[in-house]
């Protein structure tokens, strides 16, 4: 780079910074003419159907994706935490297995939307909810993604604490200057900040390239997790008595606890049953995403078993039950060899937390905000926003300050996701029989406008399912101030199963007796559009890059215009 070019770029950066600070309109993204949306609709390429050259996810990529999402501290802890409610280890394993199946089936069914049509969730849900009502689904999922982003980040901060303590043992004695009401310590907040700084640049990896990160995690986490379980089991001389402890509850109390814990574990990953098109749209083939069906239960159950075995063995080794692998790692800090092991194990768990946060929360929120405000946000800006709002404004360290609060949060989470997942499955597979008009999904005046942009069938179904659960949700938040019947309490204990199956059945019945004929098209209409390479390039770049992109577009072979797309 010569000095003249360097000065040019420096001047461009200076002018851009000045514009950002003085003119809010400078934050607007350029309107991209390559979108399949009508000219009067502001959109950007990150919302368009994925072009063929970006469909890079094979079946192995989906396996790696779910390994990334499920081999985490949260999954490890969730299974063993079930035993604190009075159930047995066998109950906990079965609950995790059934919960995984409840996650896997709707995930694969809704994943077909992305694999078939290569569109993200915020666009796909317009077919069932209507163009404008779909924004309810998008906002709901975005808010939940913000919370989960923070929860996973807080766990990542714990990894940083273990790493720094292994290097500098005095870090464990860092004085605390924060009040108890802060929900964390000075050490915890510093560790969290370091984690956030490590995670931030990795959030900027383009979606279609994330599978490389997932495979790095798979290669590193697998031997480390196995080594931890084998080591503590050998030291304990077996799984420990805690593994074989009998249940402390019985009868109907045990049955309702079983359902309640099932809902909690299912709810933790119910969002992915809804937003999986955000990732399956990068699928190389329609069948690649089917491998999610067996591997979600396999990974989730194995990690849960690891958590239960290690928790039971820790009781025998340390005299205390340690639910989290990070708590076990903390016990290794007493010797140089132990600190070395703690450093490497915590570093790999740190990578695990970053991977799941990017895939399950960061990219999901970015897709949502891109749909909600396409003038101002693309995927890159979206992940930057979630890192600040979800990472700091929500104070996630308070959310995870107690196990009970964490399980309650997961239970409440499923209330909104279950009916959305059920309606999406029913609409795509049963009502419309996998026949969507993709260009119409981008048109506010198209066939998915229904009436005033609202499909009353989806609205009615969602309200009927959610409203009976709201009193129990309020009781979860303020148990001392809300008093409800036992029937409503019991309904809430299996709210995910109730929400998914009731919404699916009710939506089908409403469409059977009152169908919307205009949306029941005879064949699928694809949404292939001219290629715009904006998923891995910043559309705000300098003029020279914009010109290069325009040259690439004009250099592509001639393709059909949206209006000329044939019905296949």
Write the layout of secondary structure elements.
Blueprint: H1 3-22, H2 59-70, H3 73-82, H4 89-117, H5 121-124, H6 126-129, H7 134-167, H8 186-202, H9 210-236, H10 251-267, H11 270-275, H12 277-280, H13 292-318, H14 325-330, H15 336-372, H16 379-393, H17 396-399, H18 403-431, H19 438-441, H20 456-466, H21 470-477, H22 486-493, H23 495-513, H24 543-555
Q: Can you give me a brief rundown of this structure?
A:
The chain has 568 residues and is mostly helical. It has helices at residues 3-22, 59-70, 73-82, 89-117, 121-124, 126-129, 134-167, 186-202, 210-236, 251-267, 270-275, 277-280, 292-318, 325-330, 336-372, 379-393, 396-399, 403-431, 438-441, 456-466, 470-477, 486-493, 495-513, 543-555.
């Amino acid at each position: 780079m010569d000095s003249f070019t360097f000065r040019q770029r420096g001047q461009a950066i200076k002018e851009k910074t000045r514009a950002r600070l003085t003119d809010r309109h400078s934050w607007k993204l350029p309107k991209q003419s390559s979108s399949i949306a009508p000219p009067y609709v502001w959109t950007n390429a990150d919302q368009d159907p994925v072009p063929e050259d970006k469909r890079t996810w094979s079946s192995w990529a989906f396996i790696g994706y779910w390994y990334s999402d499920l081999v985490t501290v949260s999954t490890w802890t969730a299974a063993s935490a079930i035993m604190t409610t009075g159930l047995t280890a066998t109950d906990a394993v079965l609950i995790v297995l059934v919960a995984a199946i409840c996650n896997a089936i709707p995930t694969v069914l809704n994943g077909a939307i992305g694999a078939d049509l290569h569109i993200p969730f915020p666009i796909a849900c317009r077919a069932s909810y209507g163009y404008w009502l779909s924004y309810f689904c998008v906002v709901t999922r975005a808010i939940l993604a913000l919370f989960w982003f923070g929860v996973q980040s807080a766990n990542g901060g714990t990894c940083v604490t273990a790493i720094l303590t292994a290097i500098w043992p005095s870090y464990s004695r860092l004085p605390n200057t924060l009040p108890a009401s802060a929900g964390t310590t000075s050490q915890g907040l510093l560790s969290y900040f370091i984690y956030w700084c490590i995670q931030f640049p990795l959030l900027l990896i383009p979606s279609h390239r994330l599978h490389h990160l997932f495979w790095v995690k798979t290669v590193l986490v697998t031997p480390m997790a196995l080594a931890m379980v084998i080591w503590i089991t050998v030291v304990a001389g077996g799984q420990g008595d805690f593994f074989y402890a009998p249940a402390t509850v019985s009868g109907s109390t045990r049955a309702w606890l079983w359902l309640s814990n099932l809902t909690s574990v299912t709810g933790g990953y119910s969002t992915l049953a809804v937003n999986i098109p955000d990732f399956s749209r990068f699928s190389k083939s329609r069948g690649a995403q089917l491998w999610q069906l067996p591997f979600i239960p396999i990974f989730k159950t194995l990690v849960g078993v690891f958590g239960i075995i290690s928790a039971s063995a820790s009781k025998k080794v340390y005299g205390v039950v340690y639910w989290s692998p990070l708590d076990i790692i903390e016990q290794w800090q007493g010797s140089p060899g132990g600190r070395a092991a703690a450093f490497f194990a915590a570093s790999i768990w740190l990578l695990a937390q970053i991977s799941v946060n990017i895939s399950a929360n960061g990219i999901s929120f970015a897709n949502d905000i891109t749909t909600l405000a396409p003038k101002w946000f693309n995927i890159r800006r979206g992940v930057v926003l979630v890192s600040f709002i979800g990472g700091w404004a929500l104070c996630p360290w308070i959310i995870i300050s107690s196990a009970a609060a964490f399980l309650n949060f997961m239970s409440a989470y499923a209330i909104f996701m279950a009916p959305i997942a059920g309606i999406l499955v029913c609409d795509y597979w049963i009502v419309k029989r996998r026949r969507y008009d993709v260009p119409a999904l981008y048109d506010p005046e198209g066939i998915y406008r229904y009436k005033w942009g609202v499909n009353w069938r989806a609205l009615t179904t969602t309200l009927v399912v959610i409203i009976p659960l709201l009193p129990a949700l309020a009781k979860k938040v303020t148990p001392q101030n809300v008093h409800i019947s036992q029937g409503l309490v019991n309904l809430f204990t299996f709210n995910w199963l109730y929400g998914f199956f009731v919404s699916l059945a009710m939506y089908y019945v409403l469409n059977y007796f009152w169908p919307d004929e205009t949306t029941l098209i005879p064949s699928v209409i694809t949404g292939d559009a001219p290629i715009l390479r904006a998923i891995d390039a910043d559309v705000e770049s300098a003029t020279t890059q914009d010109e290069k992109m325009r040259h690439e577009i004009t250099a592509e072979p001639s393709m059909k215009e949206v209006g000329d797309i044939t019905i296949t």
